[in-house]
Amino acid sequence: MATVATATLKTPKAESLFAWEGRDKRGQRVKGTASAIDEAALRVDLRRQGIALARARRQRESLKGGRVRPADIAIFSRQLSTMLVAGIPMVQSFEIVASGVDKPSVRKLILAIKADVESGSSLHEALAKHPLYFDDLYVNLVRAGEQAGALDTLLDKIATYKEKSEATKKKVKKALFYPAAVLSVAFIVTLILMIYVIPEFQGLFKGFGANLPAFTMLVIHISQIVQHQGVWIAILIGIGAVIFQHFYKRSRKLREVLDRLSLKIPIIGPILNKAAISRYARTLATMFAAGVPLVEALESVAGACGNIVYEDAVLKMRDEVAAGQRLQRAMETQNIFPNMVVQMIAVGEEAGSLDEMASKVATFYEAEVDNAVDSMSSLLEPLIMVILGVIVGSLVIAMYLPIFHLGDVVG
After folding, report:
1. What is the pLDDT of residue 174?
2. Model confidence at 405, in pLDDT bands (50, 70, 90)?
3. How far apart are the C-alpha atoms of 123 and 114, rounded to whole Å?
4. pLDDT tens digits for 93-142?
5. Would you say the C-alpha torsion 377, 382, 383, 387 has a positive or negative sign?
6. How far apart are CA 65 and CA 42, in angstroms?
7. Residues 278, 301 contacting (CB under 8 angstroms)
8. Beta partners for 16?
9. Which residues are registered as beta bridge partners of 57?
């Protein structure tokens, strides 16, 4: 049985997904899924493809549809590239890719792009209408591929770039997740002890008839503050977090200060530096290989670094390159790139293989990030266990100190 997937889109928000069955020109039974305004529009669309509709069933989709994530865009790019390499027309490629997507939000995005392409827009123009999912770097690469007549090759490079970038981000998030998770557990355990356990000991200590140790009194006072003022403290912390997030999104200066500080954090800072360098090199290699002029490429590279310190440095490099300076010299003046990176870029400029050398730099630093994350995890595990043990152990000791001195009180 052959399987065909079709979709028709006039107004994306009004469309529904249909599961249909019919017969093609040879009388062979075919079936598939399609997006259409109604069954009549679906019948017309299938008739254009030589398929006589037998039956159609409207399928229910989730209202929310899930978020469109960078990983979804990477998969979409890879699939579209594969379809174009196979010689399948672009519009039909969109239909096939959309029919194989489980997430409704991604399917609607693909069909919206397909509708724009069908109406006469170029692919990069259609993608530019969705800046939340396709940034300037993506759009510029697609435009370069369309101009060079090598869209399938460029989409393959974009997919590779997206996959490697996401892999690097996941590694960095993995490095930060474990300590954050353990410290969160330690905080929750401490709150439970402060609110429920320590008050029980406090009631027991009242019958001792003696002064409590200073350390025990300190812990009891902290427990009382948490019990009586804890809600207000939590509200203030929540308000502070909202205010911080508000200014963080709107203040570039604040983000720059925090990004600069993050690069200097012991253990984590070197990982963030290496991740920024790997993104810089990988984006530069992809853009240059696509035939994008270096000055224009550097503008997109700046936004892909993921750190304002590197973004500002790359923008300054762009200005120097636009003024006639070599990329190697422009990198040296910023003093944030290791000598090895500068020298490899210099070799690439001399040999006319800048994209190849930048790709090697990216591969090297991606491996460095992997190794650094693994090493950091091994280093932080015992350190965090010690911190957790000190916090919980201190509370336990504070509660048992009066019991240890009970013999002296009785004597």
Report:
1. 73
2. low
3. 9
4. 888 888 888 888 888 888 888 888 888 888 888 888 887 888 777 887 88
5. positive
6. 22
7. no
8. 36
9. 19
pLDDT digits 0-9 by tens, 259-307: 889 888 887 888 888 888 988 888 888 888 877 888 888 887 887 787 8
pLDDT of residue 344: 92
For residues 134 and 127, give the distance between their C-alpha atoms in angstroms, rounded to a whole number. 6
- Within 8 A by CB and 6+ apart from 88, the residues are 96
